[in-house]
Each structure stands twice: as structure tokens, then as C-alpha cells.
Amino acid sequence: MIRLWKLFFRVLLRLFYRVEVSGLENYEKAGDRVLIIANHTSLLDGVLLYAWLPETPTFAINRDIAAKRLFKPFLYFVDLFEMDAINPLSVKSMVKYIKQNKKAVIFPEGRITVTGSLMKIYEGPGLIADKSDATLLPIAIEGAQYSHLSYMKGRSYVFWFPKITLTILPPEKIQIPEQLTGHDRRKASARQLQDLMFKLT
Questions:
Q1: Catalytic residue among 6, 37, 40, 102
Q2: If you ran DSSP here, which 8-state letter would residue 78 be given?
Q3: Which of 33, 153, 159, 179 gets the highest tally of CB atoms within 10 A of its CB?
Q4: What one-character-per-residue DSSP string does 89-137 give?
Q5: 93 CB-near residues (< 8 Å, 6+ apart)
Q6: Catalytic site residue 40?
Q7: How far, in Å, CA of 127 to CA of 121, rounded?
Q8: How much is the mean pLDDT over the chain?
């Protein structure tokens, strides 16, 4: 049934948005314990990743966003991990979950872009990747920010069906010297994650 739904969404998205995907081979290279990170361009992002990722990972999203009616239908297709990226207990729970050799999608910006470029990158996702020893799988979403399902209306030219591309980059690991601890380690993981996110734009 899941495969049929994935196929349905792929056909629909290709029909309207001419979606092209590259780098799927990198998904297999990432292994079992994976934190999938992507830039957050529009309300389409979750559906795009659900449709084209070979498996159906858990989606970690902000608790306030998960409560919105618009996202309720999405619960039928995926498991949601509701979290607050600045809450230590929430981050700790996510680390514990990933350590069970799970895959999860997270948007490190925490919110959909309103500028067309990256928004503020929160420290939580970098800390999760470091503490769980997860492989990071970066995915660049391009084009969806110009759709009417983005938050760019009134700030940039938007139209109904822009062409969308998904580029799955090679997996990477956060590498931090063992002697760094506490605040310094958290900052270092956040910087490395931010550098990786810049590759998506």
C-alpha cells in the first residue's frame, strides 16, 4: 500500500511540477543510522521527500507545526516525531530514537523560508547528529520556493507549477575533536551543520 501511495504522489508531482531527482545512490551509501537534512522551501517539501525516498523515514517537525490542521492528512502516510529543537529533553529523545538505527528527516531551519535563502539554522539538529553518531544525508530542494505553497508570495515571483529538483548529496559525518565538550562541542556541531546546509543553496 505504501508503494502505491508513493507512486501516486510521484506521478502527480511529476505531472504538475516536472520533478527531477538525482543522487539516489547516496541514500543507500548513508547506512542505517541516518539524519536526513533538507532546506525548507515550501509546504510541498515533506510530500516530495516521502514520494522519492526509497524508504519512509520518520519526520521530525516542530510541535506547533504538527498541530496545524493542514498537516493532519500527512499523518496517514508517515510517522511524525514532534519536537522542539531548542528543548534539551526533546533533543535527547531524538538522539535516543536515532541510536536505534533509525532514519529521520529534519529541517534544520525549523521553518519555511520567507527569503528564498536559508533561514536561521538551529543548534539542535547538529547536536542530534553528533550525540547519536548518525550519518547526515543532505538533500537540496530547488524550485518549490517559487510555488504558491511557499511563503514567498508578495516577496518574490511565484507561480502555480514551477519545476522542482531534488538533489541527494553524498552522506557526511560531523567530526568533532573528542576534547571538545559542553557548550564548545554544541557550537562546533552547529557550525559544521551550517556549513553543510550552505551546500544545499
A1: 40
A2: S
A3: 33
A4: HHHHHHHHHHTTT-EEEE-TT-S--SSSS--PPPHHHHHHHHHHTPEEE
A5: 83
A6: yes
A7: 12
A8: 87
